[in-house]
């Protein structure tokens, strides 16, 4: 076993032979990484953004849990470095309510970004619980009004974080949080949260996020990217070839069973939408864009989640 604690310069260690789980244990800490073979050479990814590292480690945990076999070096690289896979540059009208969650202590927006979110009121953002659990409001800024992490937009401090009380950090069930901003982002498009009626299976949904369009590589574009992904039935997604019963009533799958197009780590917390209707939140998956491992999203049409979001967002 290996363990690591990090603050300023965070180090995420993932063995190419790992079959255990990398578990985030609060702000700036990693509790354990179980290796299949003692002394196995790890893949190491260093970052100056501890909040980003915590999100990546939670995604590692889910990937390893559902892997069913050791990971290859290529799969580890995809997990650590890729984001929107198989997408294209987003236009001004593609999920225009998308915002970026930034580490307040890092001045450069590109370096500071660690998750996405959706503006549902001028001062309220809906995101994933796994993006902000164990993090204080004083650590986060929200960037609004831009498609680019290199220019434009306005940073807003966060005054409060509300995480669903049933959120499970192991399964990522109830993966939703509401952030209240200290200042309002006036004059910007807002997302309308879906009601309690689901979109039909097969419906094309738009997912957006900042990141790489390649399955591997370490160069992250600063511009917002998009991918169109159809909703997949829960019965198919819970099948033995896919997620084997791991998809709860608070989740849904979207993507292609053949792989190739997907959201990934840097997109966590961001929107999957139909027009201006926020259908779900980027939550988890087994790696990124893999065969029979589509993206998993928080299902906002679930009556419990829907009521909680509306109450806590003041909708």
From TrEMBL:
Domain of life: Bacteria
Coiled coil: none
Chain ranges of the Peptidase S1 domain: 84-314
Signal sequence segment: 1-24
Record field: transmembrane: none
SMART domains assigned to the protein according to its UniProt record, in alphabetical order: Tryp_SPc (SM00020)
Keyword Transferase: no
Gene3D superfamilies in the cross-refs: Trypsin-like serine proteases
Keywords: Disulfide bond, Hydrolase, Protease, Serine protease, Signal
Name of this protein: S1 family serine peptidase
């Amino acid at each position: 076993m290996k363990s690591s604690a990090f603050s300023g310069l965070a180090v995420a260690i993932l063995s190419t032979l790992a079959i255990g789980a990398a578990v985030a244990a609060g702000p700036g800490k990693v509790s354990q990484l179980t290796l299949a073979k003692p002394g196995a050479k790890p893949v190491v990814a260093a970052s100056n953004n501890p909040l980003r590292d915590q999100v990546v480690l939670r995604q590692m945990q889910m990937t390893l849990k559902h892997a069913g076999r050791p990971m290859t070096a290529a799969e580890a690289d995809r997990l650590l470095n890729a984001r929107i896979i198989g997408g294209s540059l987003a236009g001004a009208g593609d999920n225009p309510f998308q915002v970026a969650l930034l580490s307040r202590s890092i001045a450069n927006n590109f370096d500071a970004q660690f998750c996405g979110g959706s503006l549902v009121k001028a001062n309220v953002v809906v995101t994933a619980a796994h993006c902000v659990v164990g993090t204080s409001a004083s650590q986060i800024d929200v960037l609004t009004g831009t498609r680019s992490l290199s220019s434009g937009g306005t940073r807003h401090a966060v005054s409060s974080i509300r995480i669903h009380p049933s959120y499970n950090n192991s399964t990522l069930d109830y993966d939703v949080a509401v952030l209240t901003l200290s200042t309002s982002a006036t004059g910007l498009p807002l997302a309308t949260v879906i009601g309690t009626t689901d979109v039909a299976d097969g419906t094309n949904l738009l997912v957006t996020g900042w990141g790489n369009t390649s399955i591997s590589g370490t160069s992250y574009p600063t511009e917002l990217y998009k991918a169109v992904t159809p909703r997949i039935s829960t019965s198919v997604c819970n099948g033995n070839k896919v997620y084997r019963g791991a998809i709860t009533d608070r989740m849904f799958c979207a993507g292609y069973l053949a792989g190739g197009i997907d959201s990934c780590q840097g997109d966590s917390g961001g929107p999957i939408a139909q027009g201006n209707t926020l259908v779900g939140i980027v939550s988890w998956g087994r790696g990124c864009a893999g065969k029979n491992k589509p993206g998993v999203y928080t299902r906002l049409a679930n009556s419990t989640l829907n009521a909680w979001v509306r109450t806590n967002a003041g909708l």
